[in-house]
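During the no-cost extension, the postdoctoral fellow (Dr. R.K.) reprocessed legacy sequence entries with the updated structure-token encoder. One reprocessed record is reproduced below for audit purposes.
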Amino acid sequence: QAQAQAAKVAAAAAQAQKQQQGNAEGKGKRKQPQASGPAASSASASASAALELMDMAAARLEAKADTAEGTKAAAGAADGGAVGPTAMDVDGAAAAASQQAQQQQDKAGSSNSNNAVPLADQPVQTAQQRQATMTEEEAERLDLPTRCKPDEVLELNQHTSEVFMCAWNPIHTNLIATGSGDASARIWEMAGPDARAGLVGGTSRLLQHGTNASDKKNKDVTTLEWSPNGEMLATGSYDGVAESGVGPDLSFTPSAVTVDPSSASSGTRRATTSCRDRMALDVDWKDDVTFASCSTDMAVHVCQVGSDRPLRSYAGHADEVNAVKWDPSGTLLASCSDDCSAKVWDLTKSGSEPLHDFKSHKQEIYTIKWSPTGTGSKNPTKPLLLATASFDGSVRLWNVQDGSCYRVLSRHRDSVYSVAFSPSGDYLASGSLAGQLYVWNVEQGVHVRSFKGKGDIFEVAWNVEETRVASCFSSNVVEVIDFRI
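Re-encoded structure tokens follow.
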């Protein structure tokens, strides 16, 4: 058994080294885990770790058996029989038990903690370590109780390249838009309330970036968003061109450009805001005139349309900042970085120090999402949470009121690229490389649905009714999952 375990570890180390070499084929323009620096171990370090783990394999097998047995019992009791023990996330259950024991003494990875060892800093396996300790067959067997049935999945398969983005229409809720590396966006109309109904007309509406086959190079549609009234769709491509549902809008540089919707067909600029001189990686609007941006310069800026200078600037990160997001109240701004940290900035206070500084992830944090709860949301009585998704394979939920780690969701065995809260805030969808989708019960910390597709998942999104989850794949498809509990 020890020899078999050692062989798994060695194979996983080789796989990790291959991934760290930056094989971007099929990954589109998505960022890959770094091969060196504070955000990830180098290939040589992975090899050394594998050798060390070989020596410890027998001891780890025995410890793993004891831990798994105890965790299964705890999982069965905690879940109240609603989901069988094999459906409970072993790592998540262990983290939840640790959290309960330490609830009074830590702040779960926040910089506000003193000398306590927080829950989020407890040893949690990385994605590569999970690959070393669980075979594909074992993972599929454990996911069997929550696996989606074939008639609960509708595949959208008319794109000819990887699909980067998707967005459900906020008003006409049977419509979903998708953006792809084939230089196009598409609008699909669901024919009924579930996957078995299929599509209206069996096809989609094509929105082409580029005028012909030779005009598609570097026009990957990597972002799109519906207007609040659901009548228009804005799409943006990798070549720096944005389009609306009625024609070309503008061509832009890394500074922010605002367009007057009434003159979208002519592309009239309303204002240009130059908040930075580095490539912007994310922008999030607070209101009609105020937005936050982040970039490769490691800074976070709060900007206003028409102003040449940022209203606020924060320089607390030590590496590229990948995402910024406003909370529902518009007073808190979250950011995440390749420095493995996520920070929360309080705009109601002066000063440049973050309200919270979460440093418990072991690799880059690729994205963050606020729950649609708390002040300013449609669910004001529910607590506000921040979700962080990392290349270490884990998703962590943070209670922003006290800086504690509410949940560690660590069932993924690969880098997590996307997370999305359901409209009620009761569920969270997460998608990773290797095509694994999980839907989690936030309060219980267990996954209640699972789906394994082909390729990598780049984006996940809920419809307004909370009855469907869509996931975008590098294999050129979008999988729409029926969600019923």
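The radius of gyration is 22 Å. DSSP finds six helices and 30 strands in the chain. The remaining legacy entries will be reprocessed before the final report is submitted.
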